[in-house]
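INTERNAL AUDIT FORM
Audit reference: QA-55
Scope: verify that the stored structure record matches its stored sequence.
Auditor: D.O.
Record contents follow.
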Amino acid sequence: MNLSKEDLQRLIARSTDIIVATQKGGQVAYYNDGASRSLGYGPEEILGQSVLRLYPSAEEAKRVMHAMRDEGFGGKGTVDGLQTTFRTADGEDIPVAISGTLLYDPSGAEVGTIGFAKDLREILKKDQLATLGEVAVGLSHEINNPLAVIVNQLEMLERDVLELAKDSDTSVEFERIDAMRREVGRISGILSRLGQMAQAESYETIDYVGPSRMIDLREHREVAPRLSGVRVLVVDDDLGICQSVGEILTAAGAEVFTANDGAEGLRVVESTPLDIVLSDVVMPEMDGYELYTAITSSRPDLPVLMMTAFHYDRDHVIKRSRLEGLEGVIFKKPVDPNRLIEVILEMVKEHKPGGGEAEATD
């Protein structure tokens, strides 16, 4: 079957590749539908304009022209699969591979060029995903084994702390052990998400430094804002606990304030509208009991929930607070997010006008 000239013209016009022809002076003489779709310019914006408009710089356009005249890129007067960059109407630089040739008149004089350019974005993305998959497998193998050793060592360390401490309060030590467990869990989660991205053949990037970007490995969870509108003060002398508990409550929709000791917490209470205070038991200078009694003296309507990493109450902080009316205690080893949110919801509801009677929550 012989194709007519009209058939070939229609085929070229509708090609998904970027096809551009220029006159001798570099003005665009032909611009197909594929070019419009990939680059975003309509024919009326490009035809008759300098081909330089399609490149990020004049230097890059000249590099392509020099390659066409160099025998090392497919023969003199041609290029075959030369990688370069086009700039879209939106200002995005996209990688392409050009196969093109110089055009001559019957006398052999150069009259223009024609080039077929393949948009490489999807091809390069698949190559990157293949590399990502190899990286995920390698990282999982090289990192998961040491992580397992760390977890086992933390279990033995916890038993040793319990044995050596006897009746001493080890809340601070256990908070630190729990913080290490959480970080190990975060690393495992990152490795898992990396593997999922490779299997799903999709990933997103985020800004890093300047123009650089990096793969977004953050955990994105759909969390119902159960604490929407609830204002919570978290008081703990361990910065890691403050941050992690704050993240749990923020993800649940709460407005979170933090303080790193009882005195600072009391200042926040006096200056900020709050719905509940979540306080550690053992803190320097002003412990949980002292903070609780100070709050009930100035804000008797404000519920206080205590949290501790250890069931042994050496200084009777919890016992003394209960005698003064403390309603809720959360034993955090580590904090159970769902349990914490449930208790906060119950206590806030009970202290609102028309709420039910308070109940112990330990």
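Auditor finding: record pair retrieved intact. Residues 310-315, 355-362 have pLDDT under 50 and may be disordered.
Action required: none
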